[in-house]
Amino acid sequence: MKRQHIGIVACSAEGAALCYRTICLEGARMLGPYEHPEISMHAAPLAEYVERIDRGDWMAVAELMLRSANKLAQIGADFLITPDNTIHRALEDVKKRSPLPWLHIAEVVADCAAERGFRRLGITGTRYLVESDLYPRVLSGRGLQYARPTTAEREEIHRIIMDELVGGIFKPEAVAYFQRAIARMKDEGCDAVVLGCTEIPLIVNDDNSPLPTLDSTRLLARAALRRAVEPLAVTT
Question: Quick one: how many helices (H) and strands (E) in the chain?
């Protein structure tokens, strides 16, 4: 069966790079040395996304995503992913006009959580994501409960992501802050934590987290890899 061509609509460099690298490395483990499905990526400047997000213009965010989607369709991609949780807030508008189908990062994460038997998830990510209904809506649809960081935690996590992680800056102090926030959500009854910004897995993982992690970046990459290799086994 012909492998499908994966199109990556990139937003931040670090998240997109981790997603791309995961597909390539895990593709080789699945398919044989040096093997992976065809992958193409398009990235509008992150500054263009941030400007639109800061003013709450999600339709303008959708237009940026569609610009990438159309370019990827023109060069032969079969389906699309975006390794950025925040801009999934615009995905429903995008899908109405998209030339290609998409995988949804929150749905991939929620499916994994349900399969692993987790019941209450802590949600981490940018302020734009954590204060939205994107994850709560998807998790609730699968019978899963959730908890959010406190207001103060949201602000500091947002600052770490936007001022440090997206620029490839990784500090021990940031790791320690995430650990404290995750530990507090554990005390509130969470049994796993969603790493709901695609850069968070660069500093937080199962080895240093107080809770089992749901790595949205790698989970999305693996879902894309499965779809590309076994297109009939994954629904659109």
Answer: 10, 7
The CA-based dihedral angle spanning residues 100, 137, 16, 101, taken in that order and rounded to the nearest 10 degrees: -10
Phi then psi for residue 117, to 5 deg, are 85, 15
* Domain 6-103+218-233 CATH assignment equals 3.40.50.1860: yes
Mean pLDDT of 207-211: 98
Residue 1 has a pLDDT of 61
- Its pTM stands at 0.94
Name residues whose C-beta falls within 8 Å of residue 180's C-beta, 6 or more positions apart in sequence: none
- Give the pLDDT confidence score for residue 110 in this predicted structure: 98
What are the sequence ranges of the domains in the chain? 6-103+218-233, 106-215
User: What would be the CATH architecture of the domain defined by 106-215?
Assistant: 3-Layer(aba) Sandwich (3.40)
Give 198's contacts (C-beta < 8 A, 6+ positions apart): 12, 14, 15, 16, 18, 19, 83, 84, 85, 216, 217, 220
Q: In the beta sheet, which residues pair with residue 113?
A: none
